[in-house]
Design brief:
20% of the residues are buried. This protein has 126 residues and is mainly beta. The chain has one domain (3-125). The protein has one helix at residues 60-70; strands spanning 3-5, 8-9, 14-29, 35-50, 58-59, 77-81, 84-90, 98-102, 114-125. The chain has one helix and nine strands; from the N terminus they run E-E-E-E-E-H-E-E-E-E. The longest helix is centred in the middle third of the chain and has 11 residues, at 60-70. Strand 3 and strand 4 form a beta hairpin. Strands 1, 2, 3, 4, 5, 6, 7, 8 and 9 form a nine-stranded antiparallel beta sheet that branches. The radius of gyration is 18 Å and the shape is elongated.
Amino acid sequence: MSIILEGVDITGLVLEEVSFNLIESISEKSISNSIVFFEMERKFKKFNLVGGENFGWLSKSVFETLNDMANTLGSFYTLDFEGDIKLVRFRTDEELPVFGDQIIKRTNENPEDFYNNVVLKLIQYF
């Protein structure tokens, strides 16, 4: 099975569900000091695609492409997760929406160096 994010092959990462929210609510005090609740239906699911120490490695070129995608604020992407198509965006409101450890640290980086312990923070809207 494959995992493709907007044409970028990220096969090997696994799904880690973070949260599934349908109703967002806030409360505020009115002028008369009463508590007023506001609720709004929001259909989205936060999840991560993760790699580990020994799986889900990404090449430096793929890792940089994903970073560029995450830095394009407000953009939506098509995720083909093993045949299940989802409309997603990076969770740029959180710190480091794309994270990974460079396996071999060197001063003259090579485009085919690899990253492990990868985390892609995504959100899917319905």
